[in-house]
Specification:
With 226 residues, this protein is an alpha+beta fold. Helices cover 30% and strands 18% of the residues. It has a 4-stranded mixed beta sheet, sandwiched between helices. A 4-stranded antiparallel beta sheet has the order 3-4-9-6, with no helix packed on it.
Amino acid sequence: MSSPIYNPNRPDWADMSDYVLHFSRGSQGTEAYSNIMAILSWGRIEARNPFGVGRARAPAGANHNMVCLSEVPFGQLGRLAARRRSNFAVAFRKSFLIEQGGNPILYGYAAGPLAAPINRLMVQGQGDPTHPIWQIVPFIDAPGAGGSYFFEWEREWRKVGHLSFRPEDVAFLVIPEDSHDAARAFFLDAEEDQVGPNYRCPFIDAQWSRERVTQVLAQSASVPLP
């Protein structure tokens, strides 16, 4: 019997999460809202930018455009919302993202012992897009390289290429609490008018406590949403 690809965490482990979130970006609240609505309408998060320690050195044909997500645990989502300047996010179960090719990234510090061997492997793969190193380095970042920002606290996950999903793949949405009713009505109208999908998953607020988030998710698991 094969081992499971992912084993859920114990529910009492407050420092862990079984979910990953993608926060929409926006310099203003309206822009972040427009971006998340576009993602939800199309059912796709686009991989528009390259990431990883090899993004500037990868040969043509090696795709390093990534979708980025975070597994910041409940009760700490406000910290990431502040960093992204957005209170809007879409959440997936880790198991779903893994099935789509997602993986947590490795933090190989710029001044640490992994930097040199990773660099040697990239030199070996120079000019060869089929070299295995180019499948690995999109999932490696070097905190401390090119600046002083250290981002390990984001607990980042990535997927190469666009991430397509259906409404039933979404575990929950992060939306400001005062917009929950309006958002649910919007999605219901879109479904009835056949102009867009309806997201029946739970809605939470990035500023809620861990206890409140877990309570809402537990209630939604036992009571089907309309």
